[in-house]
Structures are given as C-alpha cells and as structure tokens.
Amino acid sequence: MTIDTGTGRSAAPLSRHRSVWEVRSESWIGLVDHLSQLAKLPPDDSGREGRLTKVQALTEALRPIEACWAYPGRRAFADLCAHIDRGDLALAAIAARRTHRTLASLTYRHEGTTPRNDADLPSQIESEQEYQAQLRCPYFEVLVVDDMPADEEESLHRHVRSERRADDDFVFDVVVVPTFEDALVATMVNFNLQAVVIRYGFPYRSIHFAELTMRRFFEGADVDGELLPESERGPLLGRQIARLRPELDLYLVTDVNVEDVAAKAGETFNRIFFGEEDKLELNHSIMQGVAERYHTPFFEALCKYAKQPTGVFHALPLARGKSIMNSNWIGDLGQFYGMNLFMAETSATSGGLDSLLEPTGSLKLAQEYAARAFGSRRSFLVTNGTSTANKIVVQAIVRPDDIVLVDRNCHKSHHYGMVLAGAQVTYLEAYPLHEYSMYGAVPIRHIKETLLELRRAGTLNRVRMVLLTNCTFDGIVYNVERLMLECLAIKPDLVFLWDEAWFAFARFHPVYRQRTGMAAAAKLTEMFQSEEYAKRYAEFARGFDEAAWADDDKVLNTRLLPDPAKARVRVYATQSTHKTLTSLRQGSMIHVWDQDFKDKTEEAFHEAYMTHTSTSPNYQILASLDVGRRQMELEGYELVQRQLELAMNLRDQVGAHPQLKKHFRFLTVTDLVPEEFRESQVESLYNMDTGWANLLKAWRFDEFALDPSRATLAIGLTGMDGDTIKNKYLMDKYDIQINKTSRNTVLFMTNIGTTRSTIAYLLGVLVKIARDVDNRVRDMSTPERRIHEKRVRSLTLELPPLPNFSCFHQAFRGHSLDGQSETRDGDVRSAFFLGYEDGNCEYLTMDDTAQAIKNGRECVSAQFVIPYPPGFPILVPGQVISAEILQFMQALDVREIHGFRPELGFRIYTEAALELAGQANAVWKAQINASAGAAEGE
Ligand SMILES: Cc1ncc(COP(=O)(O)O)c(C=O)c1O
C-alpha cells in the first residue's frame, strides 16, 4: 500500500506511487469511511478534528488523480470538496459513497446508468444485464488538451452527451486537461483513454505536479516543451503521447495555418482540424478510429459463417455439431463446449472465410491489423505455436552452410530449425547464474568476439543471422537496440531473430516496448535515415579508423556504430500470443521488419510458411488471435501496467512478511543481472523515495534489464527443491500452476489475467507452505534435522557449476577460408542424421563415459540431451561430452532428461562413424573453399 488511508498521509507525489490506480481506489475507500463517521459524530466530539485532517489529506491526494478522468469529473469532485469545506458532511458522505461505488462497480461505463442518488446505487457489473450493456456499447474516454474555463468545459460535456445516438457503437466522455504536462500524466494514468484531441495554445507546466516529479515521471522526453512557441507545442505533445501509447488516436485542432501544420505534423496525427469548423467530423473520426481497432475481421467472418445454413459434404463430420448432436454417446462434448464452437468449425477455405495459406480477405486484414498493433511491417498468424513460427523464420532466412549465431539456451525449436536448414551453428554462451542453476542472457561483448573470430577466419561473409531469446524465461531482457547497432557495425547485413515467445505483451507498455525487436527496428530505421545520426556516425568514423577496426580489443571496448549507408534493418520476432495474451493455445505470430523482405525473403518465407503450416489450420485459434489483438489495442496498456504492479506487490509482500522472508526470497535485479551489465547501478526497481524512476533508468541504459513480472522465488531454505515445491505443494495441494523451476527456485509470472485475488491466494499458500516447513522442522529427530540441514546446504551453497558448450567434434566443425584452421561452428544437420543409422551409434553409461574420457576417447553425442529443468540442451548432436558436463549431469537430481536413458546411457557415435563423417567434412570443406574462391574471383 503506498497511501495510508487511515491517516490519509500521502505526501508522495504521483510518480512515486507503485500504483496510482490502487491509491485512487484506497483513497476513495478512506474518504467514504471518514466522511461516514464524521456525519454521525456530534459537533463537540474530540475525534472530529483528526478525521477532518485525514479527509483533507485524502482529497488532496485524489485531486491530481481525478483531474485525469472523465468520471466523476472536475465539477463533481469540486462539489464534493465544497460540501466538505462548508461542513455539509452528510451530503459529502453520500456523494463520496456514490462515486466510490460507481467507480468500483465500473457502472460509470454504461450510458445513462450513472445514479443520481444513493437509493439507486448500481449493482455489480457481473450482472448479466450490465455485462450485456457493456458488450453492446463499450465506453471510453477522450482526452482534450485545452486551457478552457470551467463553464466552457461543462458545455463541452453537455455537447458530447447530446451528440450520443441510440445506434452508436460506443459511448464516450471527455476529460479536459489544461497543460502539456497534465496531458502526459493523464495519458499514463487514465486507461480509459482511446483518443486525444490537442487544441491550439495551452501552457506547458502542470498546475498539479511539482516540476521535479514530472521530470522523473517522463525521464527521456526529448525536448523541453516550455521553450517552444505555442504553435509547436501541440505537435510535440502528439509525438510524446505517441511514444508513450502509440495505440491512441491523435487529433490536432489548430487555429493557425492548418495546411502548414498538416504538412509538418501530419504523420503523428490521425487528422488535423481547423478551429471549430469540423466538430461533427471530429466526433465521427473519434468513433471511427476506435471502431478500426475494435474491428476483428476474421472473428466477425467466423461468427457470420456460424449462423449460415450449410450442408457438409466434405471432411470434418464434427462441423456444425452434426456428428455430436446425432450421437447417443458423445453429447457431453457439445454440452461442455457449447454448440457455437462446432458451428464455427469448418474445413472450407473459400467463401466468407479466408485461407491462411493464401489470405486475400478477412485473414489478410487480420494480419494487417496485427502488424499495426504490434508495430511491424508485416505480421503472420501461426496456428502451431512459436515452435513452428521459429522454424518458419529460420527456414526462410538460412540457407545450407550459412553460419548462424545461436544462444545455446534457446528453445529446442531453434535447434531443430538449424538441423532442418542445414546451418553451421555457432553457439553463444549466456552468462551463468551458478547459485540458481540458471543462465542469464548473452553479453554483447561475447557476440562481438564471436563475429571477430569469424572475421579472422575469413568466414564473416557466411554469417547470416543472430538468434536470441528476449526476454528469457526468467525475465532477463536484452538492450535490443544497442545489440543490433553494435552487430550491424561489424556485419551490416545481419538478420536478427528475436524469440519473443514470452514477450508479446511488451509492445503495450512504454517501458517494455523499447526493448522489443519491432520497436528497436523502427527506431534504427528512422535513425539511419536521419541527419543527426549521419553526423554522429561521421564523428565516430573519424575517431575509429582502419587500424582501430583491425584491433580486436579496440572493437570490443568501443560502442560501435554502423554505417547508415550500409546497414540494413532486418528483424524478425516470433511471439507465443497464447503465452502472455488472450489466444487459444498454439496461437502465435511472426512479426517482420525487414527492409529487404521483398527483394530477398518474400518467396522463401512463403515456401517456409507452406512447409510448416497445416493445410487444416484451426479457425478458432485464428479467431482468438484476432480478438487478442483487439484487446491489446484497446486495453493493453492498462493490463500490462496492472501485471507489473501486481508483481511488485507480490515481491513487496513476501519481503515484508516475517514468516515468508524466513524461507523465501524473490530474486532481484542484483541477483540476476551482474553489476558489469548494470550501467545504471540500479539495485531495486521500485521504492517509495524514487518511485518507478529506477525501473525507467535501468530499462533505458542497462545492457540487461529484469522484467519485474517474472518473479523468481528462491526456495532453498525450505530444504525442498523446485520440482518438489511445484508438484507436491503448488500443483497437487493448492492447484497453483507454474511453468518453470530450477533446483532452488520457482518462477511465478504475473500476466494480463492476474488479479489482486490471485496474488492474495498465492501469498496465503506460501504462508501455509512456510508454516508446514516450520512444523516439520520443529518435529524432526536429531538425525532427521541433520539430513534437512544437509539438504538446505546442498540447495543453497553446493550447486553444480553450469557447464559451457564444450565444442563440436572436428568431424562436424567448420573451418577458416584458407582451410588452415577449424572454427567453432558445427554442422548439426550432418551430425543429427548420422545418428539415424543405428550402426553408427553405441550406448555408454555415465560411468563408462567418464572412464572413456579419462582414457582419452572423444565421446560425441548423437542426439540432443535436454534435462528439465533447466530445459536447455546440455548436449547437441555432434558435441563432445566433457568432464564438466558429466559432473553437472551427475549432480542434477531431476527426473526428466530427454535424450538420455539411464539404463542405457548416452547415445554416442562409434569411432568408425566419426571417421566417415570426418572424410565427408573434408570434401565439404574443399567445396566451400572452391566456391568461396570462385566468388572472390568474380
Ligand atoms: C523461448 C521459447 N520459444 C519458443 C517456445 C515455443 O512456443 P510454443 O509453445 O508457442 O510453441 C517456447 C516454449 O516454451 C519458449 O520458451
């Protein structure tokens, strides 16, 4: 809680609260409570004074917050304050209660249902009638930036209401703010906003917020608008709002030369109007802008299709529920899912429903809308999960023998993608977090080192792609922009594939957005075209000459900048929409920002998409992707901010609870991101003194940031490992589902569906587990206690060091252009298929392998070996088994190791098979070198 509703003390400025929305709701509760008590107390009661002071403090806390919302509005709030000032406390209590109830039940969102007196207070929105009303006519608010007097504002409200029509698709109200800064605050605070109308001529400084507070709130806002002439303030405000919440529709109403303004700022605004002349048009534009985001072309086509009478004379007997309705035995399937699911099932690929493999209608449009929402140039819907999305992108970009730099800890779909594409894979190492048996992310320096190594070998020209996971499962987030800049400086045509399986939500929050593939690609494209960057690059190039480029240390120790004349922006992102947004399972998207897509990739991409996409894609998944996109364009900001706040709340509660903190600790950014990668030196992302300023700073500058909504709980002190806590307690006993554990951690993620109640439930469960541990330890016999202490030590202090990727066996390794030396990259495809032939393989137990290694034999894995947890391949086909890997596997006490059968041991190649593979490698080496030589000669 960031406000004390008992004392009403809330001197902290708005930017310091963890959750402005929580403060708002708690303040109204406090106000209702104190005013109700005051209304009952006799005039001479000694408690009156204290309560009145609290009421004053609460209204002061609410004043700037309420200025951001259309309901209850400036006038109603002023009336409430006037009742209080006049001592009319009974009336004030009624007004406050009404407002609080209406806000809490969300009934202000229904046209005409706002109650006029206490007797007709609304019921909860859960009632079917209320819900239907909201579905029929969703409500939103429009921010008007104009320094207008109160009576003019009232008349604007009246006008907006009088314009409402019974057949409107939406209903909206307006909130007026008088200054530039107030507009920015309202943009961040008011999640009901869907459009902003910026009028001509308004002051810069806020009337509500101290200057310092504002600076912190918007750290990074580029230009100081106070110095700008009034005519330029509107366009600047538009640009800054677009940066914070790009989904909002922006309108500019100007009193000066409209054509001139449109020419300069037209790109930022949906429309620019001159003075008051097009009031009606503005109204229509606002409605239409929201309708465009609300429109879900494929979902609507599917709903329509479900209502049409059709005869099914092809496959899919389940279509239209026929095989279910006529069945004596499977009627419960229809009852459980409801008939609509089957009415919408079809295998028809024509008519109203589009074909995913060749979209021309509603699916094409749905993909275009997805591109708009996720900030890409093109987006593709995928119905087989990101596992498939990854393989599509890899196949589209990578040709046999291309070198690809891949984070070794990435999802297995990438490793299989490499096998299918026939890539030469250079595995990248993420920094290890030995104490928690998990990996962080790949440092930029290591990627640069790898590129330089390939440059030395003469094979840099064969490097096609860098493939990384952002964010990692545990919430480590790359500095995407910086990484791409530095890599492009070394190899200007590199393609980047960002696996954002867990990061689809990031687009909808300004802090997260900057570290997404698409946002960074858009920024780089703009940068490379700007004069400012050209100058910056020229200065860099002057100080970094040929000799500097030849000096590896200098290259590694310098923040490199790419040549804008050479660098291409070629970025792909794959997202499991179903993991973090509303979508049925397997709903995923591929987002593309590739300047060379048309020239270099379109055909290959199409082929790859055809290769991996079912000819019977699931229409329900596609419809849910379409609707999931609509949701995020209309309420994504609110949902993601809540996800963030709830995670911080969870962290704070565990940190402050005496029994919980004895056993559990949420890992912080200092645990998960080593100091060398935290330029900002930020150690905690939120605190009362600085608010969210630390989060903003860390996310802006650091090489790696931590996503606070990934909350990793260290559990070693309980004496139980992650798997035990997950299965024995969370899943079996309390029905709490989590996805990832390590030996001594459990990962909890908040998502856009998380509520305060689910957080409260989790906290309650953790308290029960902590109590259980306490009771068990108390009742232990002396030997039992010794065993327990040993276990705690093993889980907290004696963790097996994480092994690095050893190396590919030389039979699969790449080599330098001159053929004189081997390189790190390996031909996983040959290695993978060599293992298909049983005669090429043998099995060696763990002990026998250890002995064989001691005797000097190179034991080479014939398959992927993936222990869960941690879930990354500890061995890939063609990789040499090292003593460190064996040690790690021996220390792992996990039940599931894919690709390793304890009774048989490792599947490794026979020495004869390796000999044969080595010969094939030599032939291939000769071919590659010959073709490289021929290319050079051309
Ligand atoms: C980083 C990463 N990429 C891709 C995937 C595969 O995604 P999907 O389950 O949508 O196929 C996962 C699944 O956990 C993942 O963690």
Descriptive account of the structure:
The protein is of the alpha/beta class and 938 residues long. Helix 18 (412-421) links the parallel strand 7 and strand 8 (424-428). The radius of gyration is 31 Å and the shape is globular. The structure holds pyridoxal-5'-phosphate (PLP). Pyridoxal-5'-phosphate (PLP) binds next to helix 17.
Mean pLDDT: 88
| Major beta sheet summary | 9 strands, mixed
Which structural class matches the secondary elements? alpha/beta
Distance between the termini: 70 Å
From the spread of the alpha carbons, the general shape counts as globular
Q: For the largest beta sheet, what order do the strands appear in spatially?
A: 6-15-14-13-11-7-8-21-20
Share of helix, binned: 40-55%
Radius of gyration: 31 Å
Number of strands: 25
Amount of beta strand: 5-15%
Oligomerization state of this entry?
single chain
| Low-confidence blocks of residues | 1-11, 113-125, 211-216
Distinct bound molecules: pyridoxal-5'-phosphate
Count of DSSP helices? 38
